[in-house]
Each structure stands twice: as C-alpha cells, then as structure tokens.
Design brief:
By secondary structure, the chain is α/β, with parallel strands linked by helices. Helix content is about 50%, strand content about 15%. The longest helix has 30 residues. It binds 5'-O-[(L-methionyl)-sulphamoyl]adenosine.
Length: about 525
C-alpha cells in the first residue's frame, strides 16, 4: 500500500494580484509533493482561490463588475501561474464552486445540529480591511489600529451565528501537549500557546452586512464568515462534506492532511480555529500546520504603499534570465521557512545561482561528462576497485546523505534536504581535484584508475540528481536524458543505492546552468 500524503497551500484571495508570496508557498509545496511522489507516496496536492467576502464585493463594485466576474478573472490569473511555474497541484479549488458551497452549508448545518454553532449577539473590535474581530487584549496591544492597514479598529455590534470555540480550550491545550509538532516551527507554536493561554472566546461565523458569500442554512440573510468558508476548502476538496459524492469516494482517504503550509499571518485561524472546527466535526487533525515567515524585498517589507511587491512580471524576468529551476532552487533554499523573514534581492539570487548551480552542480556534471567523453569515448566506465577511495567510502557517504536528504524533506526542511544532495556534489568536486583524473589520463597505465574515478563521479552525480529532481525538474530531466538514466522509478530510496549506474551507458556532455552576466542581470 502506498502511503497517502495530502499537502495544502492557503487558498489565495482573488482581490489581490499574485506575487512572490503566493508563488513561494505554492512552489515549496510543489517541491515537497514532487519529492514524496518520487519516493513512491500517493500524493494529493491542493491549492486554489478564496473568493467570497466583503473585500471582493467592494472591489467588484468599485470596478463596476459582479463579484463573480471579478472572482472568475482573478482566479484564472492564479490558475495561470500554476502552469507558469510548473506547479503540479492535483486540484485547484474555488470557493465559488457549487460543490464547495453545498458542502460548507452541510458542514455548518452539522455544527448547528451538534450545538457547536448557535445564534447570539456580539460586540467587539473589528478590522474592516482584514474582516477580522480582535479580542480586547489584542485590540489594546495594537493600540486599536489595524496592524495591517493602520486604520482604526471599529467598535461593532452584530447578531451572529457563533462557533463555540471556548468549549475547545482544554482539548486544544491537550492537542499541543500531546502533538507538539502539529504547529511548526517551534517559535510559531509558542506564539499560539501564549495566546491560547489567555483563554478562548466564541467566534462569530456569520455576517449580515454584505451578501457575497455562502448563506447560513435556513438563515440566508446571514452570510458565512469568509474565513470559515475558506478553511473548509481543505476538506470540501476531498468531498468530506458530501459523503455520497464522487469526490468523497475518490478522495476522502487523503484526510487528515500530512502538511498544511501557510504564511505566519494566518496562523491563528489554522492553529486554533481550524483544529477546533475539526474536533467539532469529529474529524482527525492534520499532521502538521507549517507557518513560514515572509519574503521581504531588497531589505524592505513589501507593501502596496511602497509598491515594491516582487510581482509576476519580475519573477518572469528571473525565469527568462536564469531558468525556472533556478527560481525554484532559490525559493526553496533561501526562503523564509524558519522563524525569520528572508530577503529577496537580486544580488543574493545571482550569487546563489552562480555559486551553487553554475560553479558546483553544473560544473561538476559538465566536468565529469566531458572527461568521460575524452577519456572513455563517452561511455560510462566500470569501477574496477583499483583506485582507492581517495579518502571517501562512496557508498557509505552517499547513503548517509540520501537518508539525511529524505528525512529532512519529510519534516519539511527543504533547504536541509537540498543541502544533503549538494554535499554529494561538493564531495565529487573535491574528489576530482584531489585525484586529478585529467593528469592521470596522460599515463596509459592509469586507464583503470581514471575509469574508477569517473565512474564514482558519475554515479554520485546520478544519485544527487534523483534527490534534486523535485526542486529542479527540468534540468535534472535534461541530465537524465543526456546520461541515459531512464525515468524516475517512483522508489527514490532504492534508486539512490550506490552502484546502479551501468557501465557501458552512453554519457553525453551536459551544460546545465549557463553563466549569467551579473550586469545583464541587474539591468
Ligand atoms: N485567503 C486567505 C487564506 C485562506 S486559507 C484557508 C489569505 N489569502 S492571501 O491571498 O492573502 O494569501 C496569503 C498567503 O500568501 C500567506 O499565508 C502566504 O502563504 C503567502 N504570502 C503572502 N505574502 C507573503 C510574503 N511576503 N512572503 C511569503 N509568503 C507570503 O490569506
């Protein structure tokens, strides 16, 4: 039986233009999804768009179009980027899809029937831009102004449907103590725990001041709060709200999600409200909610007022100049997966590309294939064992890196996983320098030794390629083709065992990562 893996991104608001943040989260999920598929797992990868709510209604009004027309247009734009960045999501969910809407109503009905959702009156501090209510403490902390827009919070009273979040205080605390890894990284979990200890209040889950949303069952003047509607996407995409559906039959087995990746600004919804909703629905909890930090741009926070968002056009420029794999590599290795923000700067991008991809991986593969061309007629030599390891027990060293690369990816440490693969490549580079096959080749008696060295180089690179395929699918495929390695087998660990490269295989020369002129790059 294949292990089922389910990975999700947040669903993106259709009232914004896609930018690096959206591309980043979706790309890192894509790297993980591809890796797990290569490892033989049965992966379902979900992304999509969040299309309801007051902001969408207002933007549509301002543009003189219907909210649905606005949602259609912008959702299509998000969908287009999935193709542009080679993202392999298995489904693209839209919250205006009738299948989602019907299930959200069914799920809310279940919560009403169980008493987890009730009608009540609410008064609180409302951030109109974020469509979010703050507790008194939080409102005081932010000096009664939206931390996002800076506008004053409004005092608002509403008759609303509520979710009985307070009833889940104890169970949530138990969840965190029994499954501390449910929220990562640790710094983010600690933030949630701190706020959780202040005590939970029930949360309103409906609005009556606008219409663009899903109606509360039997009370259509109440529109389901966009966040509740949105969170449910993770299970409606699997048909969980409609047990008799085709979706349910095919997909419900993917729940619980293995990995739910979000940005840190939406942690509370995913780390507290979401698990409580699942508890109320008696559904299992996800394995991990991973909240990454933010990209900033050339040292500055990206904001509308500064107009410094790294947008799709800029990302496209990077792709044209450096290739899409280079962009994926940069996002995956230099991105803000940890607790601190990362800077997206042109110089850093160029430097990473040149050091890791041109000078290390590209150079190593091209040197190895060029020498096999020159000294072995372009055919993979055999390892006769005549050459001593040059200080390296290749099979043991490589096995260790493979284990470490797989284990890192399993815990969503993308940079760690890639670093282990790159350690293999760096070792090859050092091995070539230490053993100098290009010098030995001048001595006809050393032919066997040269063959041994080159076999080990090619074999180590082959294994690194298997590990790097998820992050750089195009270039690694190019190498597979040039070296006649065949397609990935879907059993990554088995494929990474030392010695599988067959002597006699035709090894063509490769030039994977062309040097990019720094000046052209900054122009
Ligand atoms: N619609 C909600 C999410 C609902 S999920 C049930 C939403 N959408 S959003 O369009 O604003 O997208 C937010 C997500 O975009 C963040 O959580 C993060 O994944 C990504 N990013 C937005 N800006 C970002 C950066 N500057 N850096 C990295 N990623 C960030 O919130």
């Amino acid at each position: 039986m294949q292990t089922k893996q389910y990975i999700t991104t947040p669903i993106y608001y259709v009232n914004d233009r896609p930018h690096i943040g959206h591309v980043y989260t979706t790309t890192i999920c894509d790297v993980w999804a591809r890796f797990m598929r290569l490892a033989g797992d049965d992966v379902f990868f979900l992304t999509g768009t969040d299309e309801h709510g007051q902001k969408v209604e207002q933007s549509a009004e301002a543009r003189g179009v219907t909210p649905q027309a606005l949602a259609d247009e912008n959702s299509a734009e998000f969908r287009r980027i999935m193709g542009m960045f080679h993202l392999t999501n298995d489904e693209f969910i839209r919250t205006t899809d009738p299948r989602h809407e019907q299930q959200v109503q069914a799920l809310v009905k279940r919560l009403m029937d169980s008493g987890d959702v009730y009608l009540g009156t609410f008064e609180g501090w409302y951030d109109a831009g974020q469509e979010e209510y703050y507790t008194e403490t939080k409102a005081r902390d932010v000096e009664y102004r939206s931390p996002i827009s800076g506008k004053p919070l409004e005092r608002a009273t509403e008759e609303n449907y509520y979710f009985k979040l307070s009833a889940y205080q104890q169970r949530l605390e138990t969840m965190f103590s029994e499954h501390p890894d449910i929220v990562r990284p640790e710094a983010r979990r600690n933030e949630v725990l701190g706020r959780l200890r202040e005590g939970l209040q029930d949360v309103p889950i409906s609005r009556t001041n606008f219409a663009w949303g899903i109606g509360v069952p039997e009370s259509p003047e109440h529109v389901i709060y966009v966040w509740i509607d949105a969170l449910f996407n993770y299970i409606t995409a699997l048909g969980i709200g409609d047990p008799s559906s085709q979706w349910n039959a095919e997909r419900s087995g993917y729940w619980p999600a293995s990995m739910q990746v979000i940005g840190k600004e939406i942690l509370w919804f995913h780390a507290v409200i979401w698990p409580a909703l699942l508890m109320a629905l008696e559904l299992p909890l996800p394995g991990c909610v991973y909240a990454h930090s933010f990209w900033i741009s050339e040292g500055q926070k990206m904001s509308k007022s500064l107009g410094n968002f790294i947008d799709l056009e800029q990302l496209q420029d990077y792709m044209e100049l450096y290739g899409s794999d280079a962009l994926r590599y940069f996002l995956a290795t230099q991105g803000p997966l940890g607790a601190t923000d990362s800077d997206f700067s042109r110089s850093q991008f160029h430097e990473t590309y040149t050091t890791d991809l041109v000078n290390t991986l590209g150079n190593c593969a091209s040197r190895t294939s060029a020498m096999i061309g020159k000294y072995c007629e372009g055919v993979c030599p055999a390892d006769t064992g005549e050459c001593e390891g040059g200080g390296v027990e290749w099979d043991a060293f490589v096995a260790e890196q493979v284990e470490s690369s797989v284990a890192a990816m399993e815990r969503f440490d993308l940079a760690g996983s890639i670093a282990a693969a790159m350690a293999i490549v760096r070792r090859v580079d050092a091995f070539i320098n230490d053993t100098a096959p290009f010098k030995l080749a001048k001595d006809p008696d050393a032919a066997a030794i040269v063959g041994d060295i080159l076999y080990r180089c090619a074999e180590a690179i082959r294994i690194a390629v298997c590990l790097l395929e998820a992050v750089m699918p195009s270039r690694m495929e190019e190498l597979r083709t040039a070296w006649n390695l065949g397609e990935a087998t879907g059993d990554l660990r088995a494929e990474c065992v030392w010695g599988l490269l067959k002597p006699g295989t035709t090894i063509d020369k490769v030039a994977l990562f062309p040097r990019v002129d720094a000046e052209a790059a900054s122009a």
